[in-house]
């Protein structure tokens, strides 16, 4: 549960970053789903 919350926090943080970082976050999320 805590991990999920942390990931959510990271996503919000990445949103404010550059599009490139946003793409990285998306890729990481996909890998996490695996």
Write up what this structure looks like.
The chain has 34 residues and is mainly alpha-helical. The protein has one domain (2-33). Helices cover 85% and strands 0% of the residues. The protein contains two helices and no strands. The chain has helices spanning 2-15, 19-33. Helix 1 packs antiparallel against helix 2 (19-33). The longest helix has 15 residues, at 19-33. The chain is flat and about 25 Å long. The relative contact order is 0.15.
Draw up the topology in text:
Blueprint: H1 2-15, H2 19-33
Helix pairs in contact: 1-2
What key phrases describe this protein's structure?
single chain, 34 residues, mainly alpha, 2 helices
What is the helix fraction of residues, given as a range?
A: over 70%
Task: List the total number of helices.
Answer: 2
Main β-sheet description: none
Return Rg in Å: 10 Å
Secondary-structure element pattern, one letter each: HH
Strand content: under 5%
3D shape:
flat
Low-confidence stretches are none
Please state the structural category.
Answer: mainly alpha
Question: What is this entry, summarized?
Answer:
The protein starts with a helix and ends with a helix. Helix content is 85%, strand content 0%. It has helices spanning 2-15, 19-33.
């Amino acid at each position: 549960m805590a991990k999920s919350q942390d990931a959510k926090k990271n996503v919000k943080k990445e949103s404010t970053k550059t599009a490139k970082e946003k793409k990285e976050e998306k890729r990481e999320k996909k890998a996490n789903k695996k």
